[in-house]
Amino acid sequence: MKQSSAHRTIDAIWRIESPKLIAGLTRMVRDVGLAEDLAQDALVIALEKWPISGIPDNPGAWLMTTAKRRAIDLLRRTKVRDRKYAEMAQNMDLYTEEDLNATLDGEIGDDLLRLIFMTCHPVLSQEARVALTLRLLCGLTTDEIARSFLAAEPTVAQRIVRAKKTLSAAKVPFEVPAGEALKERLTAVLEVMYLMFNEGYSATSGEDWIRPLLCREALRLGRVLAEIAPGEGEVHGLVALMEIQSSRFRTRIGAAGEPVLLMDQNRAQWDRLLIRRGLAALERSRKLGRPLGPYALQAAIAACHAEAPTAAETDWIRIAALYEALSRAAPSPIVELNRAVAVAMAFGPAFGLQIADELSGEPALKGYHLLPSVRGDLLVKLGRLEEARAEFERAASMTRNARERELLLNRAAECGTEAAE
């Protein structure tokens, strides 16, 4: 295997396996920072060996065994060797391939949920909780996380380092809490799952438009959480949103892996079972009798799309009204940008462009590629093709995702062709 090809394959494996690896190691060593370091050590060894020896049949098991051996070697060298090594000897027998298959397929799911709750402990700030969990659960780089937060990369990097040190110093337990302790972490946990799903639904960077495995893991964890906290409307709201959005996966990419936008998707291929599950979860949220929160409102928006037989039959007036409610419940520039799209569809592109133009000076959207992308789309509908082309080109220069960049450049080229005619 060529080294460049091997490294791309290893990177893909790492994105899939690293959350499970870190979660399992955290259960063993009870220190999330140390667990991530051990996992990274295993990755370095894989990068050295696999291009020569080939990818093992079970790369996750190989990485876990290697990381555990590194853990034992490290503990042998510490001052607390005797106490720690005795503790590890009781709980950390080296796995065989068969043992690891069972572990990774079974108990590891609970470990991932425990890891989310651990890193969402109130000892950390809300921003630190989310940044750290995106790093560990999604395998995002600090640059990718910074783009999700619309924040500076050095700020996010410092936040993550401090968060790991704080968790270690506070000896935060590796567990899913109960009662009030669960409720006080719920907001951060839901935000983490939401961002985890979004990263899978529309990847920040790389060659792939979507990362379905990441979405499926976020949805699975959301379903587990809904069983643990059945009286929390926003848990059901988030599950509803993820169920309905997941129904579109088969239609979000074309035969060559290119993105297919919502209005161009074949709705006959949307997964009706997932849509029914999502609508049922949304109804559970409504039946709790409290005002819909941000996730339930987004699920209601997704439901409008799911229930429309064709794109032309979409109830855009209702969607615009739901975005208005969402902007009051959870005001943000991104919500306003989405509202601009809904208003344009409901009442005409000029009204949507007015909202988008008002966001042009918003500092948080300075490097956000979807702002010029939305403006470009609205300008096309208004017949202002040269301006639209410039906006699509600007959006393409901002995105880190290769598939999205190609889509935006194609749209820019179409504008140039139509303008020339």
From TrEMBL:
Annotated ranges, domain RNA polymerase sigma factor 70 region 4 type: 115-167
Residue ranges annotated for the RNA polymerase sigma-70 region domain, each copy included: 19-79
Residue ranges constituting the DUF6596 domain according to the UniProt record: 185-285
GO biological process, one term: DNA-templated transcription initiation
Gene Ontology MF terms: DNA binding; sigma factor activity
Protein name per UniProt: RNA polymerase sigma factor
Taxonomic classification: Bacteria, Bacillati, Bacillota, Bacilli, Bacillales
